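#onboarding

Welcome to the new folks! Below is a worked example of what a typical request in this channel looks like: someone posts a single protein sequence, and someone else replies with the predicted structure as tokens. Don't worry about understanding the tokens yet, we'll cover that in week two.

Example request:
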Amino acid sequence: MITMPENPASPQARQRAEDHYYAALDRVAEGNHEQAVEEYQKSLAADPNFTDALHGLSRALQDLNRLDEAIEVSKRISEVDPDDVLAHTSLSILYQKKGMVPEAEAEANKARVLGWKQQLKKSGG
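Example response:
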């Protein structure tokens, strides 16, 4: 499990995280999900709170059918950013793939409520 640092990543660490993140995207585009997972993990070693890399890692693990690991990563996203609709949507999909219907429905509902809240904020209501 990835632990949260006390302080945000330094600019240098963030740059390393982004470099590995873009390398991971290249590996995904090539269809090499194992190497993508390695690059996402390097990105997160530099900046454990980089949610784009967490999302990418979750998806790459899902593509490798490593669903339990993908679930753990998606849970981590919702810890880092509780308002991240995609984290709950991903969890819903992952639970569904595992046949965990009640959990999938609960996460889908969380995503829906967060989406509504975000729409209300945008509309000023």
